[in-house]
Amino acid sequence: MSDLDVLKTLIPISALAPDNFRQLVAQTKIEHLPAGRILFRQGDNDGYTYYLLAGEVVLTAAEGEDEARVVAAGTDKARYALAQLKPRQFTGVAQTDVAVARMNSAGLDRLLTVDQATGCEVTEFNGAEDTEWMWRMLTNKAFNILPPANINAMFARMEPVVAQAGQAVLRQGDPGDYYYVIRSGRATVTRKSDTGKVGLLNEIGEGEAFGEEALLSGAPRNATVIMKTDGVLMRLAKKDFDDLLKAPVVKWVNFTEAKALAQAGAGLIDVRLEDEHRAGAIKGSLNIPLYLLRLKAANLDPQRSYIIYCQTGSRSAVAAFLLSQRGFDVCALEGGLNAIGHGA
Question: Hey, what's the signal peptide range on this chain (predicted)?
Answer without folding.
Answer: none
